[in-house]
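tl;dr need the bound structure. longer version: we got a ligand (IPE) that a collaborator sent over and nobodys looked at where it sits. i said id run it. heres the input, straight from their email, havent touched it
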Amino acid sequence: MADKKENTLNHISFIMDGNGRWAKRRLLPRELGHVEGAKKFREIVRYCIDVLNIKYVSCYVFSTENWNRPKREVDGIFKICYDYMNTCIKENEENRLRVRFLGDRSVFSQEFQDKVAETEEVTSKWDRTLGVCINYGGQDEIVNAVNKLIAEGKTHITKEDITNNIYTGIMPPPDMIVRTGGEYRLSNYFMWQSAYSELFFTKTLWPDFSKKEVDELIEQYKTRQRNFGGVKNA
Ligand code: IPE
Ligand code: IPE
Ligand code: MG
C-alpha cells in the first residue's frame, strides 16, 4: 500500500502481563517476577519517551481485579510502586517526565495517596506524559465518571462528558495497545479509550520484552490501515 500515509503515534500503551509465569519458570516467587517486570517497565518507558519521542505512554500496573491475588503478592506490587514514585521525585530533573496515576486511588493508604499526589505535583511541569494505571478498571472508570456527572446534576450524558471525566482526562486515546504474555484479551483495560486502538499481542512474557520488539511492533503499526469507520480514498 505505497500510497498510504504513515500512521501517527501519539500514545502507546502496554498491558504488562507475564511477570508471574516468568518467575515460575525460574522457580522463583511471583514477587520477584514483579521486581523484574518493574525494571523492564522503566527501560521500555524511557525508550518510548527518550528515543522514540512518543508523547504519551501508559502502562497497566494493577487492575481492580488484581486485589484477588495473595496479600504477599499485592503488598510486593505496592511496595514497588511506592519505590518507583520516590525515584520519580528524586530523579525528576533528569527524567523530564510527567507522571499521572490512573485509577481509583481512594482505597489506598493515606501515605500512598500522599505519595501519588506528591509525584504528580513534582513532575507536573513536563510535557511528555506517563500514565500509570493502578487500581484501574475500565468498567469502574466509566461507572465513576457517570456517578460524578449525576452528582453534578447532569440528566443527559454525552460521549464528551464521559471522555472528560474518565481517568485519562487530557491524554489522547491510545493508538497502540500492546499486551505481552500471550493472552488475547484486554482484562478490563481502557474499555472506553480502546474504541479505535490498534491491538497487538505477543507471547513474550513482560520481563523478557525488549526495545527491539517495540521497534518491530511499531513497524507493524505503521502498516495498519486505520479507518475510524470511514473508507479509504473516499
Ligand atoms: C502482570 O503479570 C502484572 C500484574 C497483573 C500485576 P502477572 O502477574 O499477571 O503474570 P502472569 O500472567 O501470572 O504470568
Ligand atoms: C492484566 O493482567 C492486568 C495487568 C497487566 C496489570 P491479569 O494477569 O490480571 O489478567 P487476567 O486475569 O489474566 O485476565
Ligand atoms: Mg497475568
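gonna send this back to them w/ a short note. Residues 11-222 form a domain with the Undecaprenyl pyrophosphate synthetase fold (CATH 3.40.1180.10).
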